[in-house]
Amino acid sequence: MKRQSAGMASFARQLACLLVAATLAASSMAGERVAAQRPEADRNENLTGWLLVAAPRMRDPRFSRAVIFLAHHDDKGAFGLIVNRLISVRPAAKLLGDILGEDAPDGNGGDEREIRIHYGGPVQPTHWNFIHSNDYTGSGTIVVTPKVSLTRNQEILRALANGKGPAKGFLAIGYAGWGPGQLEGEIKRKSWITVGPDDGIIFDNDMETKWQRAMDKRGVEL
Fold first, then answer.
1. The domain spanning residue 105 has which CATH number?
2. Strands 51-54 and 67-74, how do they pair?
3. 3-state DSSP helix/strand/coil % of the chain, to nearest 5
4. pTM confidence score
5. First-to-last CA distance in the chain?
6. Residue 93 placed within a domain
7. For 124-176, how does the pLDDT look when each residue is reduced to its tens digit (9 = 90+)?
8. CA 81, CA 129: separation in Å to the nearest integer?
9. Alpha-carbon distance 9 to 6, whole Å?
10. How many domains does the chain have?
11. Domain range holding 84?
12. Does any domain span residue 185?
């Protein structure tokens, strides 16, 4: 257990400079003017599975032009992962070694499959989640929508390193979190625009267009 914790801490340190670079790059793209926005969210509306799209007026550079998948939302708070902030791509076999300190068996496809690593958010940068398609279910898997699941158990890393696991997905380092009523307040202040579930935006590899595509789904023009 100590070895795994040390491996994750070391892995997080390796990515630290990339996280900073990704945040600074995103902040330089802020400042556009929005013409129309979705009406204020109902406080009782459950947005689990929806996308949060940072409004052009977003002042926090950590979330500039961010698209966030809301994995959980209720009256106690919300939890989400940024889906358009790529920081690294690594072979599944190497990822297994980086995080768990384990070697993947040879010849099982772990060296060929590349796994995207995202900046998931500013909270707990040594905490990871794997967001993926619903063709994989393992210990600790939470089905969020009919097409998107979330797994925190290390078994998914072993499955990927063995050439198995979900067809689509990526690993997110850190997450975005809100306390009771906090997200609703930010939506009311028009810091965020809400967009319905869209696995195409979540899993697409084109990071540069995700924000605009999500904005376009709500009829927003810059």
1. 3.40.1740.10
2. antiparallel
3. 30, 30, 40
4. 0.79
5. 49
6. yes
7. 988 999 999 999 999 889 999 999 999 998 899 989 988 889 999 999 999 99
8. 9
9. 5
10. 1
11. 2-39+47-217
12. yes
